[in-house]
Structures are given as C-alpha cells and as structure tokens.
Amino acid sequence: MLATLLSAVLVGIDARLVHVEVDVSPGLPTFTVVGLPDAIVRESRDRVRTAIRNSGFEFPWQHITINLAPADVRKEGAAYDLPIALGILAATGALSRRAPGDVLCVGSLSLDGAVRPTGGILPFAMAAARGGVHAVMVPAANAAEASAVSGLGVWPVASLLDATSLVSDLREERRYRGAAAPAAAVQAAPHPDFAEVRGQPVARRALEVAAAGGHHVLLTGPPGSGKTMMARSLAGILPPLSREESLEVTSIHSVAGLLPAGSGLIAARPFRAPHHTISDVALVGGGAHPRPGELSLAHGGVLFLDELPEFERRALEALRQPLEEGRVRIARAAATVEFPALVTLVGAMNPCPCGYFGHPLRACRCAPVQRERYAARISGPLLDRIDLCVEVPWVPPDVLVDERPQEGSSAMRERVTVARARQASRQPETGAATNARLTGRALRTLARPDAEGRALLGAAMERLALSGRAHDRVLRVARTIADLAGDGTVGAGHVAEALQYRLG
Hints:
Blueprint: E1 2-11, E2 14-25, E3 30-34, H1 39-42, H2 44-54, E4 63-69, H3 81-91, E5 103-105, E6 108-109, E7 115-116, H4 121-130, E8 135-139, H5 143-146, E9 153-157, H6 160-168, H7 201-213, E10 217-220, H8 227-234, H9 243-255, E11 271-272, H10 280-284, E12 285-286, E13 291-292, H11 294-297, E14 302-305, H12 313-317, H13 320-325, E15 327-331, E16 336-340, E17 344-349, H14 368-375, H15 380-383, E18 388-391, H16 397-400, H17 409-426, H18 440-446, H19 451-464, H20 468-485, H21 492-503
Helix pairs in contact: 2-3, 7-17, 7-20, 17-20, 19-21, 20-21
C-alpha cells in the first residue's frame, strides 16, 4: 500500500514543501530512502524501526520504499522521522484512518518513540501557510514557535503513540492553545545603560547616530576607556523589533538550532560578540551544508567585534560584501542560499599593539613600524564600509568619580525611535528601512544637502581625497543627523558633523 504525507526541507532560512511517499509491498525485507537524502535521513530507518516497535506496533518485514519529493533538493536532518513512521503505519493499516495529506508533519524520533524538538520549525510553519496547508504536526516543545504563524492549526505531539492517536482524531480541542502573543524565545540579558558611561560625549553621540541610521562604527581608544561598555549599551537604544523583523530573526535562530524548547518569537534585538579566533565560515556562514554564521545571527541587531585587528584577515575580508548588501549569499554545486545580514557593526580596537599610543600618562612602547603594521590589519576597503570612526580617549579620574547623573538609554532610545520613524515614513518606496541602506537616486534625492552643505562636502572631497563610497556614506550619516534634529533638509552643520566622524 501507498501512503503520502507532507513535510518540508530547509533552503537557507526558507522552507519548501516535501511529499513523503511511503510504499510497503511484499518482498524481501528492505528499507530504502530515495530523494537525495543525507546520511542522517538514511539512518532514519533504524530510528523509525525501533521507535515503531517500542511504541507497541508491529514493524512490517516487507519491502519498504520512502521517496522524498522533489528529488532534486537535498534533504537533511532527522525531521523526517515522524512522517516516515506515520507513513509506514498508514500504509500497513495500523492507523484507523489514512495519514492526513493536508497536515505538515515534522519531528525526530527517539528509540523509545518520543518526539524530540527540531530546528527550523518556524520556517516549516511559514512554508505550510504559504502552501495552503491548514495545520502542522510538530514536537510539543516546538508548538509555541509554530503558533507564531497566524491562521495555522498547530497539533503538538510528544511521542509517536501520541501522533497516531492524533491522526485518528484531529479534534479542534487538541490543537495547541498558547498565549495570544508568543513569549520571547530568550530573555535577553540586560544591556548596560548609557547612564553608567562616564564622559565620552563624542562616542555617545556617534553611537546614537549609528543606532538611528543603522550605521557601522569603529571605536578606537586605550584599554579601559569604555569601548566595550558603550558597544553593549548600543543594543539597548535600538527600537523594538517589528513583527516582520521578529519572524525573520526567529527563523534564523531556529534554523541555527539556537531556540530553546518551548520558546516563541524573539522580541529583543540580537547582540552577538564572537571571539577574535572565530573562523570566516563561523563568522559569515557557510559549510558543506550552509548554516547562518554570527553575522546573520546578529541580523536586525548589533554585531560587536572587539579587538578588531586580532581577527583573521580572511574573516574580516569576508565581511565586505555582506555589509554592503545586507545579506550573505553562499553558492554550492547543488544550490545557492541566502541569509539576511542587516546588522549594525561595531568594531573596537586599541590605537597600537600595547594600547597606549597617545595616552597622556602612560608611555607607548611600540615603534612606529609596529603601529603601522597593527593599523594595516584592517584593510582600506573594509574601513571604507564603516560610516563612523570615533576616537575614545582615556577618561580622567575626576570624570570617573563624578556622581552627577548622566543621560540614560531610555531618553536616547526615544530619539532613535523617532528618527527611525521619520525614515520609515519618508522612504517606503525605496525599500531602505534605514538611512544606511539608501543608494543611488534615493540617496541623492533624500540626502541632498543645501548649497552650503554641498560646498563643504565638495571641498572635503577634494582636500581629503575621499572615495565615491566615502562621499555617499557622509551623505547617509548627515541625513541621519538631520533626522535626529528633526530637520527636513541636510545642512552644512549636519555635513560637518558627518565629516568629523569620517575623519575620526
């Protein structure tokens, strides 16, 4: 007999529907899986056979053929265990009704028949909704994640026996009943508040501009000047995720297997701070079977690279194109996948290897050639993609012990949110959510300076030999500064401040 169920396959952070066709016929006992399965999928025969027997069913010692269609897309992971097991039981008549062809099934099986949590459930559920499927059958631990897709029935199962019972009785009351608004997947660790930062008015201002326009920042200063604290504080002044952003961010973390069991949508903007020993594949994404890297895991939030010159040159250079395009494209022989990568990059570095060049009290021990070699670890093309370069000077003791209250993150967040709202209302037709993404005619139109501003920018281009990319980045930053000030036109003052950050 033949039974057909629906499942799905991940392609990047998206999913495509897969038909799981199960044929059980008389003949020598065999168990064959076709349809471009990987090793984990092929191993499902042992998991499925044992799970069926340990769930109280008789495993058919006949000729079993599993076809995963379409056959031209590689199938990976253990998520096909559950539909394969249900298909075998349906084909042998062990179920009281035929397997539901309008319910998408995913889940990996333990040997005792328990259904384990599976990564990528949110993309699977979104694919089901797009494909007109009315419900999904998912591991119970993933039910909250799947329920984030509106208008889709969610049938949670904890074991194979539970799944067979559900197939026989798909009653409405057995659907998942979660909270009206799914909880955040992970309670984000509290970010430092800018009220804790002493001094550093220029760096504070630069980070506010970066948050408002989505610009990349490089902080340069001696150890202990507050670079790391301010970078971590930046995530706290970003506006909350929209629902569309939350779905995308959650999908990335789901595919990467980083969502805890029982979690729903991620509500907080990501903050990722990988160690400088990270490889280029782990930073940008890739591998034999492409998975998102730290860059995509920071999508919608902040990617903080501390000790920037200590990162491998290959890893840093791999960032160049994704930072420009806002996505990572990974090409393999079988397919090309894309991962979103719209981040605010914050890099931090010392002024020299010992860290004390230019310090008013401590002498630098580095020779000029050492300082030059240290700075050269960050290539010119990568620096050209960073909008704001800011010096973070040593903080004197009298400033550190000053107990006068400083402006906190909440006030800064309000200004950033208002500035981003101005951008969203002004440029919906451009497809650029923030000023940092403005290009071409939209940039020339929306960020065109007044006469004084154009004259100042022209003089700076000639005197400082700025590249065309640098010219555009000055315009974007100037547009953001004007938005923070509530000005409709980019003036000479806005251009002057943007140039200051460019030269920092």
